[in-house]
Write a structure and sequence with these properties.
Keywords: Membrane, Transmembrane, Transmembrane helix. InterPro entries: DUF7554. By secondary structure, the chain is mostly helical. The chain has one domain. Helices cover 82% and strands 0% of the residues. The longest helix has 51 residues. The radius of gyration is 27 Å and the shape is rod-shaped.
């Protein structure tokens, strides 16, 4: 078997593995972006909670 005698099935397997790795990296990237987006939302939620607590305190609801 010479060096250039690579079967088509072997090449398709290599391409399939590369596509699976690419898709897995895309999914991991999207999950990471979602997690970072949720972390960026936390300061806003904390600010709203503080405002609500202050308003409730001033209205003697706490």
């Amino acid at each position: 078997m010479s060096r250039a005698a690579v079967e088509v099935e072997d090449l398709l397997k290599v391409v399939l593995v590369l596509v699976v790795v690419w898709l897995a990296l895309e999914i991991v990237g999207e999950v990471f972006d979602l997690f970072v987006g949720l972390l960026n939302l936390f300061p806003t939620v904390i600010g709203v909670l503080i405002v609500v607590l202050i308003v409730l305190w001033l209205l003697d609801r706490i």
